Amino acid sequence: MKVVSQYFSNRRLWRRRLNGVLYIPDQGRFLVEVLNVSGPTRMVEELERLSALGSPWASAVLGCICLRPGANGERDVARAIVLCAPHAERRDPYALFVYAWALLHSGKRNMAIRTMQKSALLKFPPAVLDFVTFVWSGWGMKEANPQAALQLLNRAFKVHHAMALAWLSVLYRSGKYGLMRHAFGYVLIPLAWLRVMYAASVDPFSCTVFTLSTKTLTMPFFREWRAIHKGGQ
What we know:
Helix content is 68%, strand content 0%. The chain is built from twelve helices and no strands.
């Protein structure tokens, strides 16, 4: 019954507050209630306090929020770098992950892919998955490497990332792996997205659900901020 109750609670929170998943580790889960009761501004204030006290995960969460548009519709890549760089130097996997995305968006692609690889080697599930994105896209490389991307995706399955099957469908549907796999990629679509939606509904704050992408980085994490931005246009 507790699992069912949590499922419906998360669904309500998703509809009311969130435009996407956001990883919050166990020690920070009290912030979910802060978000639910008091909204994103109060949650961010608490994250700022914890980050100032030296919390790596709070700095990483703030960095994630900075990488997506805020209430003013603008992202702050420079601040994400400032927040995450010190913790990335100490090899915190979450900070490395966010730092890699921030470096990518600041144009430092070679450094970005090396940083994402460091986080992936520490088996941080979002980094294991998004390292596939980097290799597939050829960011920081001479060219994209479809075969290496497919091999790396096996690691995302091993760390149980919910998006791994969806990514497999995308790779297969690219047509770069033969006709049979191309067709099978379409067969995988419904199962892959059911897996993602179920996992995100059960726990939208899990590291096995969280990922970033160039698409998700175009809108705020929080619905209220998106509404404010739209209202100001």
